[in-house]
């Protein structure tokens, strides 16, 4: 007698991680929320991490190979971040970032750094929830993926009338703990807000904070590419 074993295909999920959410399913005893609050399918886990006070693109899967494929240094997957920083960095400061800066006794790898032009505009606040988006909504997100728009953060960043701020872009191939924040602080421009908007060729787009969806096969190729 033979038994047919049905093997479910691997799942890859894109999640817009809000501010104040951990990249893990269990609480750490802090006021930060865990991923268990967002209604994900069983047996998925976060690929890599974003700090609780960082936002944006977080991938989850039930397939271990994604962890190696996306995080191992030999694959050098680009990660793009938008950082809202204090003051307006000049070209010399951005060149410092690009060439590598010393943080915690090591020099960061060369990266790409630029002033976002035009500066991102705020979208209307979105209702947070763990619901999966429809196919039509997903297609719209892909078409509008690179638009420089951001959702407001809750709580909002501190605002000082006497200190200007701006958004810069950073493209890295490494992701050490709190690296972007330490890099911008090293050049005298502390990060006020940080979003990851891209991994490989896949953009977060306008997926609202707290929402997630399962990626189609062709989108998985963009992530892997």
Walk me through what this model shows:
The protein has helices at residues 65-71, 91-99, 135-143, 179-186, 217-224, and strands spanning 12-17, 45-47, 55-61, 79-86, 102-103, 106-107, 112-115, 121-122, 149-150, 165-172, 191-199, 202-203, 212-214. The protein is an alpha+beta fold. Mean pLDDT is 86; it is low at 3-7 and 138-145.
List descriptors.
225 residues, alpha+beta, nine-stranded mixed sheet, two-stranded antiparallel sheet, 5 helices, 13 strands, 18% helix, disordered N terminus
| H/E topology pattern | EEEHEHEEEEHEEHEEEH
Number of strands: 13
Percentage of residues in helical conformation: 10-25%
What is the subunit arrangement here?
single chain
Radius of gyration: 18 Å
Globular, elongated, flat, extended or rod-shaped: what is the shape? globular
Calculate the mean pLDDT score and round it: 86
Alpha-beta classification: alpha+beta
**What proportion of the residues form beta strands (DSSP E)?**
25-35%
The major β-sheet equals:
9 strands, mixed
Helix count, per DSSP? 5
What's the layout of helices and strands?
Layout: E1 12-17, E2 45-47, E3 55-61, H1 65-71, E4 79-86, H2 91-99, E5 102-103, E6 106-107, E7 112-115, E8 121-122, H3 135-143, E9 149-150, E10 165-172, H4 179-186, E11 191-199, E12 202-203, E13 212-214, H5 217-224
Parallel strand pairs: 3-11, 8-9
Antiparallel strand pairs: 1-3, 1-13, 2-3, 4-10, 4-11, 5-6, 7-10, 11-12
